[in-house]
Amino acid sequence: MSTSQRLELDEIKSIVKQSLLIDRLELEDISAEEITDDMILFGDGLGLDSVEAFEVMVGMEELFGVMVEDIPAEELKLHLKNVQSIAELILLKHTKGMD
């Protein structure tokens, strides 16, 4: 991964933490700084549920122009695992050109 891609990935992760998770989901008990890149977002990790998963997907479209409806459900679960995987999906979609 090039240095410019690394900076872009770090910037995406920052936006995902603050705008997509904290602001959009109105999380009050945690700050963006407390969310690690590899923290599991659903279930035992951050504790998000299926309604919040939907909000994350809608937010990805609104904030980054990333559509996820063409991704199979099992694969999408892997992409929504944590901040790192969400950011990598966003970067991949932008690198490949929007579907």
Poorly predicted ranges: none
Which structural class do you get from the secondary structure elements? mainly alpha
Label the overall shape.
Answer: globular
Give the C-alpha Rg. 13 Å
- Give the amount of beta strand, in percent: under 5%
Helical content stands at 55-70%
Alpha carbon gap, first and last residue? 22 Å
Looking at the structure, the CATH topology is Non-ribosomal Peptide Synthetase Peptidyl Carrier Protein, Chain A
Q: Secondary-structure element order, as H and E? A: HHHH
Mean pLDDT: 92
Architecture per CATH nomenclature, i.e. the level-2 architecture = Orthogonal Bundle
Number of domains: 1
**CATH homology-level superfamily:** ACP-like
Largest sheet: none
> What is the overall number of helices?
4
Domain Carrier: 11-94
Protein name: Carrier domain-containing protein
InterPro entries: ACP-like_sf, PP-bd_ACP
Pfam family, one: PP-binding
Description of the molecule:
It comes from Paenibacillus plantiphilus. InterPro entries: ACP-like_sf (IPR036736), PP-bd_ACP (IPR009081). Pfam families: PP-binding. This is Carrier domain-containing protein. The protein has four helices and no strands. The chain is mainly alpha-helical and about 100 residues long. It has a single domain, classed as Non-ribosomal Peptide Synthetase Peptidyl Carrier Protein, Chain A (Orthogonal Bundle). Helix 1 packs across helix 2 and helix 1 (about 5-25) crosses helix 4 (about 85-95). Helices cover about 60% and strands about 0% of the residues.
